[in-house]
Write a structure and sequence with these properties.
Elements lengths: L2 E5 L24 H12 L6 E5 L8 H15 L6 E5 L7 H9 L4 E4 L4 H8 L3 H14 L4 E7 L7 H10 L4 E5 L16 H17 L7 H12 L14 E4 L4 E3 L13 E2 L6 H5 L2 H16 L14 H6 L12 H23 L10 H4 L3 H6 L3
Parallel strand pairs: 1-2, 1-7, 2-3, 3-4, 4-5, 5-6
Antiparallel strand pairs: 7-8, 8-9
Helix pairs in contact: 1-2, 7-12
This protein binds iron/sulfur cluster (SF4) (2 copies).
């Protein structure tokens, strides 16, 4: 099974998004020596293919020099792990030189936009939209592929039609993200979408997606359909991520995921010590997340969707309970809603094609909305 190492060159970020939980002003920037240690650490860590995602904060703050050394180091010295790369960035600091480097390594870039300029800047700060769009132009002219993550908040949900049309009309693919509460925030609930709102949003986007098939790509909907079809999780949220996902902070500290970076109580080890998997498994965070897994086994055991939901994201669950294990991912209701809907429609579609020609009710709107099987079978 492939594993995932998120590299967090810094938690610093030049933007100041209202609901951000992952940036930290004055965060140090990773030295290239930490990447050299990552290489030594992973040489004998596992045999399976690895994906490295540069995440932040804003990873481009590490600069061209850092990436021009880090990428060949990781790609050549760990060639036996067939490394793949990804990058998550607001693109503000993207230069043509950097874009060419990332394109050379075939790195898909995820960026963030919350919709049309006015709405985006209200949530992410004045001037954000223009700066990201300038970076997007640089990416485009240098053959760098960018897709966007759109964060829906308790505010922007009221403009979901405008947001969907914005992405559709501009030919931008998207992945949606419900605003999360933060473990570190003093007012963690302010922007958060309720599970019911999130469930309804997923169904709305499923409908729009089916109506505009071939014109836009909505990654989460693809993934949700695939989870139902294959009966197993296809993204980290719906698998037991512990043990297959790691994040490395600017100082080389190893965490279970980028969402925990910067919180000392979640440090499992340091790349400079080259810990084995067994050594990491003895750390308190690993054991704690193992407890979460056991909690899910017990508390979700009667759920139809347990195999491909696995209690959702542990970070989401812990963020809601001040770090205590006393509930699963609060989006549970949303997951159940969308899994149920996809299952219902897929069954209907399959039965529909089996009885084609026998059905006289040809006018119903739901009947004409086909394509869920196409999404289920869509190549990744
Ligand atoms: S904690 Fe959540 S975001 Fe992080 S790897 Fe696990 S499921 Fe994914
Ligand atoms: S949908 Fe809810 S109850 Fe079912 S496995 Fe996921 S979190 Fe657990």
């Amino acid at each position: 099974m492939a594993f995932h190492v998120m590299l967090i060159p810094t938690l610093g970020c030049p933007s100041n998004c209202s609901y951000c939980w992952s940036s930290k002003p004055d965060s140090p920037v990773m030295d290239i020596q930490i990447i050299e240690e990552v290489v030594k650490w992973l040489k004998k860590f596992r045999e399976e293919p690895v994906t490295f995602t540069f995440h932040g904060g804003e990873p481009l703050l590490a600069g061209y020099d850092f990436f021009s050394k880090a990428l060949p180091l990781l790609a050549k010295s760990l060639a036996h792990l067939k490394p793949a790369f990804a990058l998550q960035s607001n693109l503000w600091n993207l230069t043509p030189e950097m874009a060419r480097l990332f394109a050379e390594y075939g790195i898909p870039v995820g960026s963030s936009l919350d919709g049309p300029e006015e709405l985006n800047d209200l949530q992410r700060g004045k001037g954000y939209y223009q700066k990201t769009m300038e970076g997007f132009k640089i990416a485009n002219t240098n053959n760098l592929q960018v897709s966007f993550i759109c964060t829906f908040t308790s505010y922007s949900i009221n403009y979901k039609e405008d947001i969907f049309n914005f992405f559709l009309e501009n030919g931008l693919n998207l992945k949606l993200h419900p605003a999360l509460p933060s473990i570190r925030d003093e007012n963690p609930e302010k922007w958060v979408l309720s599970p019911e709102e999130y469930g309804e949003l997923l169904i709305y986007l499923l409908d729009e997606y089916l109506d505009h098939m071939g014109q836009i790509e909505i990654k989460n909907i693809d993934n949700l359909c695939k989870c139902v079809f294959t009966r197993r999780g296809t993204v980290c949220t719906f698998v037991d991520c512990m043990g297959d996902t790691f994040a490395v902070g600017p100082d080389g500290s190893i965490y279970p995921c980028y969402r925990f970076v910067g919180m000392p109580e979640w440090v499992m080890g340091n790349v400079c010590d080259h810990p084995t998997r067994e050594e990491l498994a003895k750390s308190a965070p690993w054991k704690y997340l193992q407890e979460f897994k056991e909690y899910v086994d017990e508390n979700c055991k009667r759920c139809t969707y347990i195999k491909f939901c696995r209690g959702g994201c542990p970070y989401n669950a812990l963020a809601r309970s001040d770090g205590k294990i006393n509930g699963v991912d609060p989006h549970c209701t949303a997951y159940k809603t969308i899994f149920k809907e996809i299952t219902k429609r897929a069954t209907k579609e399959m039965l529909g094609s089996a009885t084609m020609g026998l059905d006289t009710d040809s006018g119903s709107e739901e009947k004409s909305k086909k394509g869920i099987m196409t999404l289920m079978l869509k190549p990744s």
